[in-house]
Amino acid sequence: MSATHLSENQRARSAIFKRLREMPVSPLPAPDVQTYFRTQPTVLAQSSANRIERFITQAKSWRTEIIEATPGTWQEYIAEVAQKKSLQRLLAGRGTAFSDGLNRALSNKLSWYDEDLSEIKPILFSETDAGITTVRSGVAETGSLIVWPTHNEPRSLSLVPPVHIAILYASDIVETLYEAVSTQDWASGMPTNALLISGPSRTSDIQRTLAYGAHGPKELVLILIRDDVAAAQVRA
Amino acid sequence: MSVTEHIVRPEDFKLRSREAVADPKLRSNFRGAMDFLIERRAAQFPEGTVFTQLRKVGETVRKHALSRLPDLLDQLEINLQRLGVNVHYAENSADANRIFLEIAKRHHADMMIKGKSMVSEEIELNQAMATEGIECIESDMGEYILQIDGDRPSHIIMPAIHKTKQDIAKLFSEKIPGATYTEDVDELIAMGRSVLRDKFRDARIGVSGVNFMVAETGTLALVENEGNGRMCTTIPDVHIAITGIEKVVEKLEHIVPLYALLTRSATGQAVSTYFNLITGPRRVGEKDGPREMHLILLDNGRTQAYREEKFRATLQCIRCGACMNHCPVYTRVGGHSYGTAYPGPIGSIISPHLLGLSETRDLPTASSLCGACGEVCPVGIPIPEILMRLREAARNNNVGTDQALRGQASARKVLEALTWKAWRILYSNSFLYRPFVWVASRLRWLTPKNQAGWTKSRAPLRPAPRAMRELLAQRNKQRENK
Asked: Under 8 Å CB-to-CB from B262, ≥6 apart: which residues?
């Protein structure tokens, strides 16, 4: 950064802080966000018993396609999704709990996100039909997916390909975003990028008409692994 | 696509409003869009208590943050620098545009891809960069449509609501190479997607706004549905974020209620498609994300609003647009009439600080004071009260503030001020008032038919044939005589 830039920045910074500090403002009380979210009627009215059902209803309302599977069947289902949607080339990250399973299920259709974005860009933008990522948590209140990209599963994996296939354990579904932020103590270690994703990319910018696939994925498929109930109870 | 043709000025508000009111197509577009947004929001808050409770939390978050603003900015800056983000301060648009230009030049970039940012509209970034040969490409669908038409946003959330799909179909068929005319919205969106994908892939610099900043973690939060915000902040090697200094809150958990209020109030969605939390540039070992990140913190008159307690609440705004959706004036005159980046009630209370009261003196009068804006505001800004304070400041030198506002008393007219002074003397003194009314009622036939602005759309004012006092006295006399 040039010397003039630094001095210009210093000038602007001091001027702004001077104007802000000149008028002493007495600090107002801190908000009690915790009490609000622990006592708000919309959350209290819900029992945790049907939390996963509510998650499914809400997620579907954002046009998330949900495929319920078991820890034993998810690989079959993901292969079926690839087949049905004619996905020829799928991209995923190595080193996740699902990498081996994905490799078995998709074999030659699957590639790994191994290179830097600058190298993988042409493949990512033009040749990849779907990106597969894990999901950290689901949010029942709004049917949202909490995704924390990592060096294994980079940010662009859930963004650039036209289809995003996400994998979530039902036991990782929480009630609200606030619950995730507070109980998982996000504030003490935020990743470079944390995402709340609710459905495929959309827009209503043309005469208020809803259209999907604005800039991100056109479709969002969620493989929901029902580790919360016995396998026999899971709908096919 | 560079130089905007439709630059309008806030000084022309009255003229533009008259034109807009006489345009039936524009009025029906706005009426339809506003009814749609009002209905969607109402569906999110079926019970009044849910809204009032959540609003109380949101208001407390914003008020608390503003009461500690310089400390929080300090904390934010330290945390951002620790993460490797370059923090820049800009006193005005010229500062901000200079910073953009320096970064672009250093990276030899002749193009930047932009996510939606009202602050970039405020500093007229696209125009400033165009004069230096740098193209800023809008990637929000609405903004993209406006840009290729040389038009400007008329709403802060739905920028292209003044256009019909037929307008856009025609525009795309003329401006996008190879596009054929279609009114199918899915096809139109696919065309925009395809053009902009190449830009995301190739741009060296991505630009975005910011919805909330978190001091304790150095996190920037972006709210969006389309995914272009994620593209601009993920794919290019350099990410430049720009926002107002007021957008900071103390804790990460504080943005949760603000987010809930924002999406519900703006478009009536319980959540947006993406809530994108960015904490610093790419870290070691990560395969994507920007390698270099900048945050530009803009003042541009915000400190003026901050310094006066009676205007400070203006800065609580989270830019949801609910006040404009519910404003009977905005719905009738449309967003362009205001001639400012921020139209509607919030624009009328923020623009005087950004541009000075002299240019914007008519904007605080663009309200019937029906109170709808204040009722729906998700962070409890008393917009009608602030509008009245600005009206007062536009016409008076001394309104009990420590420092005059920029452009204070610019709407003051000597004749008007004298008239009110005379009125005050007359109406507060019964020895003057009684003979005055007696004479006025007898000379009512002399009242002019043409009474300047008043009779443009109203019947002329005339004194009554007899004053109430006289009529009462007459009646009492008659009763006594009976």
From this structure: B211, B223, B318, B319, B320, B378
**DSSP code of A208?**
T
Window 404-463 of B, Cβ < 8 Å to A:
none
The per-residue pLDDT for range B417-453, each reduced to its tens digit, is 999 999 999 999 999 999 999 999 999 999 999 988 8
Please, which residues have CB within 8 angstroms of residue A187's CB and are 6 or more apart in sequence?
A181, B216, B217, B251, B252, B253
Residue of A53, A124, A134, A132 whose CA lies nearest to A85: A132
Q: What is the reported pTM?
A: 0.94
Tell me how far apart the alpha carbons of residues B466 and B389 are, in angstroms, rounded to a whole number: 36
The residues, any chain, with a CB within 8 Å of residue B197's CB and separated by 6 or more, are A125, A215
CA distances from A82 to A88, A98, A99, A199, B381 (A): 7, 16, 16, 19, 51
CA B230 to chain centroid, in Å, comes to 24
**A15 interaction partners in chain B (CB closer than 8 Å):** 91, 299
Average pLDDT over residues B308-313: 94
Average pLDDT, 10 consecutive residues per value, chain A (236 residues): 80 97 90 89 66 96 97 96 98 97 96 97 97 98 97 98 98 96 97 98 94 97 93 68
Q: Can you read off the two tokens belonging to residue A4?
A: 């003039």
pLDDT tens digit string along B218-260? Answer: 999 999 999 999 999 999 999 999 999 999 999 999 999 999 9
Between B63, B285, B287, which is nearest A117 by CB? B287
Distance in angstroms (rounded) separating the CA atoms of residues B440 and B448: 13
- Residue B107 pLDDT > 90: yes
Q: Which residues of A touch B94 (CB under 8 A)?
A: none
Q: B347-397, pLDDT tens digit by residue?
A: 999 999 999 999 999 999 999 999 999 999 999 999 999 999 999 999 988
Chain A hits for B142, Cβ within 8 Å: 203, 205
Would you tell me which residues 170-209 of chain B have a C-beta closer than 8 angstroms to some C-beta of chain A? 185-186, 188-190, 192-193, 196-197, 200-201
One-letter identity of residue A162: P
| 3-class DSSP assignment, residue B401 | coil
> If we measure between CA atoms, which residue out of B10, B17, B3, B336 comes closest to residue B149?
B3
Average confidence (pLDDT) over B305-328 = 97
In angstroms, the CA B39 to CA B316 distance is: 24
Q: Kindly tell me the sign of the dihedral angle through the C-alpha atoms of B189, B192, B198, B203.
A: negative
DSSP string, A23-74: S--PPPPPP-HHHHHHH-HHHHTS-GGGHHHHHHHHHHHTTEEEEEE-TTTH
* Separation of alpha carbons B201 and B234, rounded Å: 10
Cross-chain residue pair B98–A8, CB shorter than 8 Å:
yes
The C-alpha of A63 sits at a distance from chain B's nearest C-alpha, in angstroms, of 11
| A residues 74-103 lying closer than 8 A (beta carbon) to B | none
Residues 6+ apart with CB under 8 A from B184: none
